[in-house]
Amino acid sequence: MKKAFSLILIFVLAVGLCIPASAIVDIPALAAEVQMGTQKLCVNGRNVTCEAFELNERVYYRLRDLAYLLSGSASQFDIGWDAKSATVSILTRCEYTTATGIELSVGPERTVTAQLTQQQIVVNGVLQNGLTVYNVDGTNYIDLVELSEMLRFDIFYILDADTYVIWTTDHSLEERKANYADYLKSNINLVALVLTWPDIPGGAEHLIG
């Protein structure tokens, strides 16, 4: 999945060139055959391996895995499901309480069909049209970058370790900056960094390592 971060790098460059986000058009496929495998993830210093797949240079993680891993942090969220209306509800800043037992489960590498979900996605009571969610065998997978933009957590990708790293904003700005600096000092090949850093007046920062 090393190529997946190239789109983030393009996004970073676009921000640096002051290109409006609306000028970058990314139309998700309605359905696609994808290779389901495993992807390393480090969340606030905790290393795990999750099921994930790459599609159109984006990486999609199981929504419930991310809810489980982010629970207890500033970016935590809970998930609800209304079968009658086929609606997935996300409540931000709420502890994850609806675990189903599939969290962090990993199967063999395999080819699967990812279907752009027909379910409604509601976040804090508001219907969302901007989130890209794919359904695989009844389970929802979400674009990691889009989730970070919604929940305001930092992401960077370590090429040498093929690992995505997440830091949430309950860790101080100084701690998060120091963590990034430590990776640079260790001469690890850091492809790109997307920092939300809402602590900084003026919005997000997007930097290239």
Discrete helix count = 4
- The helix fraction, in percent, is 10-25%
Percent in strands:
35-45%
Principal-axis shape equals globular
Number of domains: 1
Overall pLDDT confidence? 79
Order of helices and strands: HEEEHEEEEEEEHEEHEE
Taking strands numbered 1, 2, ... along the chain, how are they ordered across the largest sheet? 1-2-3-10-9-6
Largest sheet at a glance?
6 strands, antiparallel, barrel
Calculate Rg over CA atoms: 17 Å
Structural class: alpha+beta
Question: What is the end-to-end distance?
Answer: 19 Å
How many DSSP E strands? 14
As residue ranges, the low-confidence spans are 4-25, 197-209
Descriptive labels:
single chain; six-stranded antiparallel barrel; alpha+beta; disordered C terminus; 19% helix; globular; 209 residues; four-stranded mixed β-sheet; 4 helices
